[in-house]
Design goal:
- This protein has helices at 15-26, 39-53, 67-81, 104-132, 153-173, 191-204, 208-216, 228-238, and strands at residues 6-9, 30-34, 57-60, 86-89, 135-140, 178-185, 250-253.
- It is of the alpha/beta class.
- The structure holds nicotinamide-adenine-dinucleotide.
- Its EC number is 1.1.1.30.
- It comes from Sphingomonas vulcanisoli.
- It is an enzyme of class 1 (oxidoreductase).
C-alpha cells in the first residue's frame, strides 16, 4: 500500500530502524536508510530493501548530530527518491550514569541525536509533505517519553522532548494531511539495550542476570521484551490511510510498563 511513497528512516542500519525500513519496503516504499556500520553490511541491507520494495533504496551516511548533514540527507532523498513522504525519526543512543557524574559531552550528544535530529528532520521534510498534502511523521520515542528511570537523565529528557515535538507538529500540520505520532516502546532486544547492560551492572552493582530480570524486565508486566517486528507493525499502521485521524498521540508499546 506504499507504492509510490518514499520513506526516510534515521538510524536504520540496526535494530528498530532496520525493522521499520524492511516493513515499509515490503509494502513498496522507496527507502533512504541511514546510520553507522560496516560498509559491506550496509550495502547488503540496501540491496535487500531494494529487492523487497521493487522501488529505490539509497543509503545516506548523515550524522544525526549534525543539522547541516540532516538537511542535506532530506534534500538528497527528495532529489533521488522523490522526497520523504514518511519520516521515521529513530536514531538514538543511550548513556547510563548518575546525574552528578554524567559526562557533559554525552548529555549534548544524546540531546542532539535523540531530540534535535527529530526536529531537523521534521523541519526539512515539512515543505515537501505540505506540498503533496500527505505525510507521516513517526517518532520512535520510548516508554521513557512518558516515565523516568534513574541514571538516564539525558535519554529521558530527550524522549520527553520528542513527545512534545510530535504534539506540536501534529497541531501545525493537522489541516495538511500530515500526521505526527510517537511510537513508544518498552524494552526491545536490540544492540542499544545489550550495550547498556555493563554500565547498568556498574551503576547499580548487579549481575547481568539481575539487570535483565530485576531492572530491564522489572517494569514490563508481560516479562517479555517487545519485538522489533511488533514496533515496525505499529509504525506501518500509522502510515495507512485508515490512520489519518491518529495524530498528536503517543502510542505505548511496552508490555504494560506505563500502565503502572
Ligand atoms: P540500535 O543501537 O540497534 O540502533 C540505533 C541506530 O541509530 C543504528 O542504526 C545507529 O547506527 C544509528 N545511529 C546512532 N547514532 C547515530 C548518528 N549520530 N547518526 C545517524 N545514525 C546514528 O538501537 P535501537 O534499540 O534499535 O533504537 C532505535 C530507537 O528506538 C532509539 O531512538 C531508541 O531510543 C528507541 N528505543 C529503543 C528501545 C529498546 O529497548 N531497544 C526502547 C525504546 C525506544
Amino acid at each position: 500500500f506504499l507504492k509510490g511513497k518514499t520513506a526516510l528512516v534515521s538510524g536504520s542500519t540496526s535494530g528498530i530502524g532496520l525493522g521499520c525500513a524492511k516493513a515499509l519496503a515490503a509494502e513498496g516504499a522507496a527507502i533512504m536508510i541511514n546510520g553507522f556500520g560496516e560498509a559491506d553490511a550496509i550495502e547488503a541491507e540496501r540491496r535487500e530493501l531494494e529487492a523487497l520494495s521493487g522501488a529505490g533504496a539509497v543509503y545516506d551516511a548523515a550524522d544525526m548530530s549534525k543539522p547541516e548533514e540532516i538537511a542535506a540527507a532530506v534534500a538528497r532523498c527528495t532529489a533521488e527518491l522523490g522526497g520523504p513522504d514518511i519520516v521515521i525519526a529513530n536514531a538514538g543512543i543511550q548513556h547510563v550514569s548518575p546525574i552528578e557524574d554524567f559526562p557533559i559531552e554525552k548529555w549534548d550528544q544524546i540531546i542532539a541525536i535523540n531530540l534535535s535530529s527529530a526536529f531537523h528532520l521534521t523541519r526539512a521534510a515539512i515543505p515537501g509533505m505540505k506540498g503533496k498534502g500527505w505525510g507521516r511523521l513517526i517518532y520512535i520515542a520510548s516508554a521513557h517519553s512518558l516515565t523516568a528511570s534513574p541514571f538516564k537523565s539525558a535519554y529521558v529528557a530527550a524522549k520527553h522532548g520528542v513527545a512534545g515535538l510530535a504534539k506540536t507538529a501534529a497541531l501545525e500540520l493537522a489541516t495538511h494531511g500530515v500526521t505526527a505520532n510517537c511510537v513508544s516502546p518498552g524494552y526491545v532486544w536490540t544492540p542499544l539495550v545489550e550495550k547498556q547492560i555493563p554500565d547498568t551492572m556498574k551503576a547499580r552493582g548487579l549481575t547481568r542476570e539481575q539487570v535483565m530480570n530485576d531492572v530491564l524486565l522489572a517494569g514490563q508486566p508481560t516479562k517479555q521484551f517487545v519485538t522489533i517486528d511488533q514496533v515496525a507493525s505499529l509504525a506501518l499502521y500509522l502510515c495507512r490511510d485508515e490512520a489519518a485521524a491518529i495524530t498528536g498521540a503517543n502510542h505505548a508499546i511496552d508490555g504494560g510498563w506505563t500502565a503502572q
